[in-house]
Every structure is written in C-alpha cells, then in structure tokens.
UniProtKB/TrEMBL annotation:
It comes from the Eukaryota. Coiled coil: none annotated. This is peptidylprolyl isomerase. Keywords: Chaperone, Isomerase, Repeat, Rotamase, TPR repeat. It comes from Neogobius melanostomus. InterPro entries: FKBP4/5/8-like, PPIase_dom_sf, PPIase_FKBP_dom, TPR-like_helical_dom_sf, TPR_rpt. Signal peptide: none annotated. It is an enzyme of class 5 (isomerase). Its EC number is 5.2.1.8.
Length: 444
C-alpha cells in the first residue's frame, strides 16, 4: 500500500492539508468528512446502501497515535453499509469508494466519536483519521439460502415497512438475461403477489423496504418463476431474474396485537382458503405465507371459553398440518417433523400428523422412527391401509440396511484377516509369527 507523504499523520497542519487536497463527502458540505484517495480502485460499481462490505482500516488521532487497526489484528471487518451499524464517516466514506480503493478520511467529532469519545482511547470531541481499504462488497442477502439479494439505489424515508397482508403500490421493472420483460405500476397485497404475476422474491422483499425506496433485487430461480418459468413473459425454466422495485406507497395490515380474538378467528378461514388455492396450484411457498399468518395470530391465544378454545385449536392444527404438507412437497423434512410435532402437542392421536411425520422420517432414512409413527397411526385407525403399506416398506428398508451393514462389516473383517494372515516361516517351518511391517500413523 502506498503512503501519501503530503499528509503526515503527526502534523498539526493535517486539517488544512485535507481541505486543500481532499473532497468533502458530506451531504451538508460542512467539511465534516474530508476524503483523500491514496490508491484508486477498480473502475466500475460502488457499494449501495445495505451492501455487505469488507474493509481494512486503521484509526489514528491527529497526534499519530493508533487507537484501532484491523491490519494489526490481521482480520478484515464486514458490515452493512449505510445502515447505521458503524460511524457516520464510515458509511459516507465507503459508499464513495470503489473495490480496491485506499483512502484517508478526516472526521470531525459529530461524524465519528462525538463528545463522548472512547474511554482510554479517544479523548472527547476528537478529530480522527481513518485509512480505509475497500476489499470487497456484495448486495444485502435477504434469505439464508442467498436466494434474494438486494441493492438499494435510493433509501426510503421512514423506518416503517409493509407487513404480510399490507396493500402496496410499486413500480416494477423485471429483467432476464439483461432483457426487459416487465415494466408497470401495480398494486397488490403482500403475501399474495402471485395473483398479480409478482415473483415470490419481490413479494418477500416488501417487508424489508420503506416508502420511497428504490432497490434492485437479484432473484435465484426458486424466488423467481421457478422450474415452470413464466410463458406470458417468455421466461424459461430455472432462470435468474433482476427486478428494480420502487415502493411508492403502502397501507399496513393490522398486526396481531391490534386485533381481538374474534377478529382473528373470523379472518382465519379466508386466509386458509387463499393458502389452499396456492397449494392446489403448486405455489407451495406462497401457501406457507398464508398458513404462517394464522399461526402468528393464534399461537399465543388461549380463549375465554370452551368454544373459543376449540376454534383456536382447530385453526392451529389445520395450519400446522397444511404447513407439514407444503414442506413435504418441498422436501424440507425437518420442517415437516417440526409442524407435525406441534400438532401432536395439541392432539397426540392426530392421524394426519403421525402419518406425515412418518413419511418425513422415512424419506430421511429414519426407518425405525418412521415405522413407529405408522404403527401409532394403526392404533388410532386400524383400517388405514396406507399406514400398513408404509410399515411394510419400513421393514423392507430396515432389512436392506441390516444386510448392507453385514456385508460392509464382513468385507472389512475379511480385509483385516487377510492382512493379519501374512506371516513368515522361521527355522524348520514349525514356528509362525506375524510379519512385522512399518506402518503409518493411524494405520492398523
């Protein structure tokens, strides 16, 4: 890394040097953060608000004393830029940088550590200097499976976001392989974007956006139009999509705490119906959103009488069973088991929950546990032919597994025996001793 000899860190003239050589990157143009580029970065993109950035930094007082350095720790530092996770000066500085760039930032207290400073390191109201190197950046990941990546072009003007059930007004521009295929203003209900031809990833990103925000969403096929594609847009199967989305306005739906129990119970059948429609059409992720809404409303409710308690129980059992079926279709077997367990906590003899948990366990090769579930199904419903058939399958799988184990161990012991049988004959051939050989560590 180069060193700028014109900006010695121990000089009392540093602020003046920064003013003469640097640029003011504050929005107020109050010279609160002055930047001097020491090494230019790669031409091209710069970080956007919300991007995950990785940097090296060294922080110094005007005396030249270092108070913090990632380089000394030999460990880079990552954060989401523009989200208030770090100093204001860092957010401003990094958003102005290119990948590989090295710069110096002269930061007034109001953009750094303020009047409080940092005990034992930074005096009150200190002007500080940071040397920053932008190593890398990528969009903000909105899902654990990296299926939705967001890059914010224009930050929204509030901290409130739409929720499931909210009515939103957006402008969309969808691209596939660089070609624009969708450009429109559209209103839809969050959680029901499929009804308006909105891909799952755009729908699911709504609760992360604020009014006025404009962002670019990079969607993996699972969150786009999936294996089916979208013929009306001439989108083939398993295509990655890019959507630029502007949230123009929205009206939030009532949160659970804003509704009384009767209102929740009255709304639940309609949400169930919507989920069932999505399930029948093969839109399992969209169905999951609907069933989760019912659970979020009712899982903490007890009811004030027998009738209310019964309705709550019925709604929760239905929602968890339907979630289990969705996750079974999606081959997310741990989620199937979790939802079936929730039903069994409410009703330990629930035939559907026991059967679906058995199916998930069978598909996870947990044959004994699966067979136990199907046997419990028969205890509840002796005429259940499907459970009898599944028990036969489990028994066959257990037998196959045992035979495979026997063959595996037999082959292993045979190899041991053959190796140990290698001997040398000493003298007249009457004394047999194993032939010793040099072995490597860990070798029998």
């Amino acid at each position: 890394m180069t060193t700028d000899q014109d900006l010695p860190l121990d000089s009392q003239a540093i602020p003046a040097r920064f003013v003469s050589k640097g640029i003011d990157i504050t929005t107020k143009k109050d010279q609160g953060v002055m930047k001097v580029v020491k090494r230019k970065g790669q031409d091209g993109d710069r970080p956007m608000i919300g991007d995950k950035v990785t940097v090296h930094y060294t922080g110094k007082l005007l005396t030249g004393q270092t108070f913090d350095s990632s380089r000394e720790r030999k460990e880079s530092f990552s954060f989401n830029v523009g989200k208030g996770q770090v100093l204001k000066a860092w957010d401003m500085g990094v958003l102005s940088m290119q990948r590989g760039e090295v710069c110096l930032l002269l930061c007034k207290p109001e953009y750094a550590y303020g009047c409080a400073g940092n005990p034992d390191k930074i005096p009150s109201n200190s002007v500080v200097i940071f040397e920053m190197e932008l190593l890398n950046f990528e969009g903000e990941l909105l899902t654990d499976d990296r299926g939705i990546m967001r890059r914010i072009k224009v930050k929204g003007d509030s901290f409130i976001s739409p929720n499931d059930g909210a009515s939103v007004q957006v402008h969309l521009e969808g691209r596939c392989d660089g070609q624009l295929f969708d450009s429109r203003d559209v209103s839809f209900t969050v959680g029901e974007g499929e009804d308006s031809g909105i891909p799952l990833g755009v729908d699911r990103a709504m609760d992360k956006m604020q009014k006025g925000e404009c962002c670019v969403l990079h969607l993996q096929p699972k969150y786009g139009f999936g294996a089916e594609g979208r013929p009306e847009f001439k989108i083939g199967p398993d295509k990655e999509l890019e959507y630029e989305v502007t949230l123009k306005d929205f009206q939030r739906a009532k949160e659970s705490w804003e509704m009384d129990l009767n209102e929740k119970l009255d709304l639940a059948p309609g949400v169930k119906h919507k989920g069932n429609q999505y399930f029948k059409d093969g839109h399992f992720y969209q169905a999951i959103v609907q069933y989760h809404r019912i659970i979020s409303w009712l899982e903490m409710e007890c009811g004030s009488g027998i009738e209310q308690h019964k309705r709550i129980k019925e709604c929760l059992v239905m929602a968890h069973l339907n979630l289990a079926m969705c996750f079974l279709k999606l081959k997310e077997f741990s989620q199937v088991i979790d939802n079936c367990n929730k039903v069994i906590e409410i009703d330990e003899t629930n035939e559907k929950a026991l059967y679906r948990r058995g199916e998930a366990r069978l598909l996870r090769n947990e044959f004994s546990l699966a067979m136990a579930d199907f046997q419990r199904v028969l205890q509840v419903s002796p005429q259940n032919r499907a459970a009898r058939s599944q028990i036969s399958i489990c028994q066959s799988k257990i037998k196959e597994h045992d035979e495979l184990d026997k063959r595996t161990y037999a082959n292993m012991f045979q190899k041991f025996a053959e190796r140990d049988a290698k001997v040398i004959i000493l003298g007249d051939g009457t004394d047999w001793l194993p032939r010793f050989r040099q072995s490597t560590p860990g070798q029998l």
